[in-house]
Amino acid sequence: MTESPPRPEDAQQPATPPQGEPEAPEDEGLPRSRHPTDRVLIDRIERQKTERLRASREPAGSLWRTVAQVGTLGWLIALPPVLGAFLGHLIDMRLDTGITWAIGLLFLGLGMGGYFFWRTIQEAEENGT
Question: Where do runs of H (alpha helix) occur along the chain?
Fold first, then answer.
């Protein structure tokens, strides 16, 4: 089957949405919404666009503040394993258990350091810093 070419009178008629469906305002530059959840998505995109624009206008912060944050994260990662290994070594010496406690507390310190690092990053993201 072959399709017939479009008729000129069909091309001149503006497309009208079905009755009962709301239209998005045309001044936003966004496509018309035909589904209720589309409006939610469009609102979320507009909010993100506004937040990014605001963030791009704000200063990133001072160099010393960034250095302090990086230093703090370094201590949060390094200190718990070192303290765990040291405490484990003291316990091993007192109980004469080889390196059992030192290794166990070293890994516990690694886990705690990772948790502290993750928590600090999450708090920084929530605060926007």
Answer: 8-12, 36-57, 63-95, 100-127
User: Domain coordinates of the chain in residue numbers?
Assistant: 27-58, 63-127
Best CA proximity match to 78, nearest among 121, 127, 102, 113: 113
The pLDDT value recorded for residue 80 is 96
pLDDT of residue 63: 77
Instruction: Give 39's pLDDT tier (boundaries 50, 70, 90).
Output: confident
Question: How far is residue 38's CA from residue 67's CA, in Å, rounded to a whole number?
Answer: 43
Separation CA 37–CA 45 (nearest Å): 13
Q: Is the pLDDT of residue 42 over 80?
A: yes
Q: Which of 61, 75, 63 is nearest to 124 (CA)?
A: 61
Q: Which of 22-36, 43-57, 87-101 has the lowest mean pLDDT?
A: 22-36
Residue 117 carries which side chain, given as an amino acid letter?
F
DSSP 17: P
